[in-house]
Amino acid sequence: MGVRVVSAPWVLTGSRPAPVVADGAVALDGDVLLAVGPRAEVEARFGRGERLEAVLLPALVNAHVHLELSHLRGRVPGGEGLPAWIQRLVATRASTPEEDAAIEDAVAQLLRFGVAAVGEVTNGLGALPWLSRAGIAGTVFLEVFGFTAPRIERALERARQLAAAAPAAVPGLRLALSPHAVYSTHLPILAELLRAGPGSLHLAEDPAERRFCDESAGPFARMHRSLGVTELPRLGRSAVSVAAPFLRPESLAVHLVDLDDEDRGLLVAAGSTAVLCPRSNLHIGGRLADLPRLLSAGVPLAVGTDSLASTPSLSPLAELAVLSRAWPQLSPLRLLALAWNGAAVGAPGVGRLAPGSAPGLVAAPLDPDSARERPSFAPARWLLEEFGPAELPLTWLARHRPEPTA
Ligand SMILES: [Zn+2]
User: Fold this and answer.
1) 254 C-alpha to center of ligand 1: Å?
2) Å from CA of 181 to ligand 1 middle
3) For all residues of the chain together, what is the average pLDDT?
4) How is residue 406 annotated by DSSP?
5) What is the CATH number of domain 60-345?
């Protein structure tokens, strides 16, 4: 296959030392990136290319999604906090049949929004064939929960059977058993699963978790008592303090809305990646995770959408747009880095235009009459303040191809 050269007014590389290239270009051999840089340099090496009036950027990562809840889109009202939302979700899910068409649409949405890798959380592996077919990489977290030993044993047994019967995942898409949350998962099994490898844990999503861990009281305690659990020992000061001893650098800690300084210190020490799902958090509890504090503490970060049951779309850029509006002082490139954290989901090639790799490359078309004519046009800010919130589709120039594993 011949070399394809594409130039554009702006190229975002996702990496230093040149995160933004004005009048830039890329050279591609199929999906493999041969070069990225100033147009003059790339064209001198590879010849004159086609011109796109667009911002080129690395494909994105949606580090937390539940595709098999896609049929519940718009059907689970929020606003009263996590325990109330979970009860509505469980009731609605029980009375609404799953639809393959909803998962298929959701995967098409991921592609439309430029997603090359996901952290998919599943109870039934329903989305695995769709993700494989779409060539989306990352990790499928097969989630187990059950607060008592007998319940978690049954959940584990079922999950192991599902995993054993699963179709072979395509290269770049791995499967990992994973605990749901501190308030829902038998602690010794939560610890064992996180120690065993990649895992994703819903953590500190709501103040009710702190109350449950510290006082064995509140809505989560009532939920367990109504299921017949009679002994609820104090677990610890906060959900983070309970989970922290078992969190590892390859663990994802999802949500982190209700944190204190001590919690943040524990997260930094664990080295786990915090996955923020801002629109879901606003829908369910009306609160955002404190991104500036997480950044200054040095917690590694990624962004997810959560499921369509609590967010209006699966667009990582639309999620970042909410964070950008809440904290306009944060640099747009610092925010975009949250959607380029391929390593967080086991797809380290995704999110930066490194020559020799195939990270996935997308284009955000510029409106020829407006955006690029502005003298102060800043492409990263435009992505977060205009393109992202409008939920416009990205165009694929090259797909992600996982690195062959040794
Ligand atoms: Zn979730």
Assistant:
1) 7
2) 10
3) 96
4) -
5) 3.20.20.140
Q: Are 179 and 144 in contact (CB under 8 A)?
A: yes
Fold agreement between 3-58+352-401 and 60-345: no
- Sheet order of strands, 115-122 included: 60-65, 115-122, 137-144, 173-179
Report the 10 Å Cβ neighbour count for 404: 7
Q: Does 2.30.40.10 match the CATH number of domain 3-58+352-401?
A: yes
User: What confidence category does residue 406 fall into, taking pLDDT thresholds of 50, 70 and 90?
Assistant: very low
Q: Mean pLDDT across the stretch 327-347? A: 98
- Residue 167 to residue 176: CA distance in whole angstroms: 14
**What residue ranges do the domains of the chain occupy?**
3-58+352-401, 60-345
CA distances for 35 relative to 27, 56, 343, 364, 383, angstroms: 5, 13, 22, 20, 23
Amino acid at 19: P
What value does the mean pLDDT take over residues 182-188? 97
Task: Calculate how far, in angstroms, residue 131's C-alpha sits from the geometric centre of ligand 1.
Answer: 18
| The amino acid at 327 | W
Report CA(393)–ligand 1 centroid distance (Å). 24
Quickly state the pLDDT bin for 369 (edges 50, 70, 90). low
